[in-house]
Amino acid sequence: MNYETLLLHEAIRLLIISIRQQRRHTQQSLSLESGISRQYISQMECGKRIPSLDTLSQLAIALKTSMGSLMSEMDRIYQHLFWQSKTDQVDKNDDFSARNAAETHNPSLEYIHRAGGLDKP
Fold first, then answer.
1. Can you give the residue range of the structural domain that contains 111?
2. Which residue from 20, 76, 83, 97 is spatially nearest to 51, judged by alpha carbons?
3. What is the pLDDT of residues 77-107, one digit of tens each?
């Protein structure tokens, strides 16, 4: 599974939690309102299950919102996660560059760092 798909799954998970809490539903009350089992709602919120479009439609109806609004909010969450991950990646690269610059005076340490440690040839 590629990284963008994993981000999408995380966005769906966060969407379900967020909108349920905003509408002041418990998993049980949303289950009763939507006809989706509480266990399945829990599994979606834990990221163990990914809802189908039919399930998202049932949730939208129960939460008194449209599929368009649900998709728009999911896209907002996805974009936030995507750009947050890009920012984190840049920060990690900056840390590695700073560490490399500090170690350039010792070529053997630089080689060990690039090789991934002492155990690798």
1. 3-115
2. 20
3. 999 999 988 887 666 665 555 555 444 444 4
